[in-house]
Write a structure and sequence with these properties.
single chain; alpha+beta; five-stranded antiparallel β-sheet; 13 strands
């Protein structure tokens, strides 16, 4: 370990210098890390969904359904976003089990994971440029630029970390074809394939390989030949890598195939000509994209800065500009080509590149927010090019090689960064409101008798039941049935009705979704005097069209229906009825939900237009609603085991490298 640190930090002062720098960085963002300031933008749903996932996982459940979102919706989309198999999430679970609040555990994870990315950037710069000073400047620039502030606004670090470490392990593999380096590359690729839409990383890797083919063709061929030779020498390890890569692709492939028809994303998909719900309309400059270059990014107005605004230290631009007047090499030209391709691509229809790729490149129909390329690719490569210029400047005169000169640059970068970051944080000051998935969200919240009466009175007092005209949906993700109901039913009525989790009817009436009347809507959602059930043609005789008594709301005190177990994917009830009745569970219908009564599979119906219903027999019975198929849970468990096992094996290989140098 000591030998390893010496190889990374050739000067002990460099290692010591990092400790106060990291402490200063933590102090600058302490308001976010302590929870005094609320996370911003995309960072909020990523925190919330990480909490939901890990809460359920710590309870022994792999969540595939979210009962709190838009009346109930499949959860796989959000699992894809957070990268559910990342072993570093176990840090949050461990800290939470030790008594730390989830937010503070998440803040420690976020800080540690970010510093791991900074360390990866440091290692890459040192390995490519062979310059300790440049590596130090690169790490400090990354920490005290806009790249650190975006941590509390977006999910960029989840893509950047595996990308930068993939590059590091690839460089190491080029020098030494051993198990650690090969499996390190494999592990990083696995993370990229399971983090959000992997096409951002895939685009950057394609551009990187294209630039390598232009400027480093020989080295690229040597690297590919090394992989081929390694596959022959270490067949078992190579096959292991192929198998785990294949496993990491499967969740995304099954999600992409299963989402069509049973899930809608109106906010994302609206306007797209493609039928797949993950597709997006062709992006235009008017919708966003990477902003035009401006001198404001060099000397920003501190009064107008917000977290997530673009900012790089002046020193970075000066070093980059200085390199333009010196003799350039392939490395600088490589960076320049990489930079311009990503920048042109992220300008949407301002250049012909994106429209062409949207039309002919299949995965460009499924990604938007191309400004993410600015954070994942453009800013790091620009910093790298500035550091390449720094190395060439250092070789000009001896005075530039002195540590004092380097430390002055570090001080200037940090000093400007302190003022800019504090301005961003002060601008972000806001009242902290609660996040999603707080309190007792994981419980089945049945109303008491008094509350049930109030809900019934509120429904009957509603002025409007249906919308006068179908409204555009503001739903981000949900089932098509809930989306349709939300466009038909008055939002206040729907919100009040959804406070009722279970309804028990004496009769049910068949309805035709194509010709539902306002009278039927009133009966189902206001009067609660009949369940509307969509039946197959052969089952229509089951329903009784006559009106029965008011369908009683199942309350905490109800003796007929008692909850036994509830989690993200399951609801188990104990029923004791004097006659057969129809139960409506006000959680969205989905074809992957199943119902068992005393262990026997029964028919589950679409009830009240968008919810789940089942006929319950008289007597005592155990009723179990459960979501998903067994192979889905098995696949999740296998992939999780593959990630965790490979991660632990990598740690073992790294420790062996530290101890024995191999």
């Amino acid at each position: 370990m000591i030998k390893f640190l010496k190889s990374l930090f050739s000067s002990k002062y460099t290692l010591i210098l990092f400790l106060p720098i990291i402490s200063l960085w933590i102090f600058l963002f302490s308001d976010f890390l302590s929870g005094h300031l609320r996370l911003i933008g995309d960072a909020v749903p990523y925190y919330e969904n990480t909490k939901f996932y890990l809460d359920q996982l710590s309870r022994g459940t792999i969540p595939l359904w979210d009962h709190t979102r838009n009346g109930g919706a499949p959860y796989e989309f959000f699992l894809r976003r957070i990268g559910e198999f990342n072993p570093f999430y176990f840090l949050i679970i461990i800290l939470s089990k030790l008594g730390m609040s989830f937010y503070h555990a998440y803040a420690i994870f976020l800080t540690s994971y970010y510093m791991l990315g900074v360390f990866g950037f440091y290692c890459v710069i040192k390995k490519i440029l062979k310059n300790q000073d440049a590596a130090l400047l690169g790490a400090v620039t990354l920490m005290f630029s806009c790249f650190s502030a975006i941590l509390f606004r977006s999910f960029i670090i989840l893509v950047f970390n595996p990308l930068i470490w993939l590059l590091y392990f690839s460089l190491c593999f080029y020098e030494s074809q051993n198990r650690r380096n090969f499996l390190g590359m494999t592990f990083c690729l696995m993370l990229l394939l399971t983090t959000y839409i992997p096409f951002y990383a895939l685009t950057i890797l394609i551009v990187f390989l294209l630039c390598c083919a232009v400027f480093y063709r020989k080295q690229l061929l040597i690297f590919l030949r090394s992989v081929y030779n390694f596959s022959g020498k270490e067949r078992k390890i190579f096959m292991l890598g192929i198998v785990v890569l294949f496993l990491s692709v499967l969740p995304g492939l099954t999600f992409f195939a299963d989402i069509n028809g049973a899930v809608v994303l109106p906010d994302r998909h609206e306007g797209s000509l493609d039928t797949h719900p993950m597709s997006v309309v062709q992006q235009t400059v008017a919708l966003g994209g990477t902003p035009a270059l401006s001198l404001a990014y060099i000397l920003p107005d501190l009064r107008g800065l917000r977290v997530g605004d673009i900012y790089l230290p002046v020193i970075t631009f000066l070093l980059f500009a200085g390199g333009l007047f010196l003799k350039t090499g392939r490395r600088f030209c490589f960076g320049l080509m990489f930079l311009f391709i990503l920048y042109w691509l992220s300008l949407y229809d301002a250049t012909p590149i994106y429209p062409f790729l949207y039309k002919y490149g299949f995965f460009f129909k499924y990604i938007r927010n191309f400004q993410f390329f600015l954070w994942i690719g453009i800013i790091p490569i620009f910093i790298f090019m500035a550091l390449d210029s720094f190395c060439r400047i250092q070789r000009m005169k001896e005075m530039f090689q002195r540590k004092a000169f380097v430390y002055v640059l570090v001080f200037c970068i940090i000093l400007q960064g302190v003022f800019v970051i504090r301005a961003m944080v002060v601008k972000a000051s806001q009242k902290v409101s609660s996040y999603r998935y707080e309190d007792n969200y994981a419980d089945l919240l049945l109303p008491d008798t008094k509350t049930a009466q109030v809900i019934g009175e509120e429904l009957k007092a509603a002025e409007h039941i249906v919308r006068t005209e179908r409204s555009l949906s503001n739903m981000y993700i949900g089932t098509p049935w809930m989306n349709d109901l939300g466009q038909r039913l008055d939002p206040n009525v729907l919100q009040t009705y959804q406070q009722i989790k279970l309804l028990l009817y004496d009769q049910a009436q068949y309805f035709d979704p194509a010709s539902i009347s306002e009278k039927d809507m009133k009966a189902a959602f206001v009067d609660l005097d009949k369940a509307l059930v969509e039946l197959r043609e052969a089952e229509k005789s089951i329903a009784d069209s006559s009106l029965g008594d008011i369908g009683p709301i199942v309350t905490k005190e109800s003796p007929e229906v008692m909850p036994l177990r509830f989690n993200a994917n399951e609801l188990v009830l104990k029923t004791n009825l004097n006659k057969s009745k129809f139960l409506v569970y006000n959680d969205s219908f989905h074809p992957d939900w199943n119902i068992e009564i005393d262990g026997k599979i029964e028919t589950i119906y679409k009830a009240n237009l968008a919810f789940k219903g089942v006929w319950l027999p008289a007597g005592e019975h155990i009723v179990r609603f459960h979501y998903g198929k067994r192979w889905q849970y098995l696949l999740k468990a296998i992939v999780m085991a593959a990630f965790t096992g490979l991660f632990m094996y990598l740690i073992y290989l790294q420790i062996r490298t530290w101890r024995y140098g191999r």
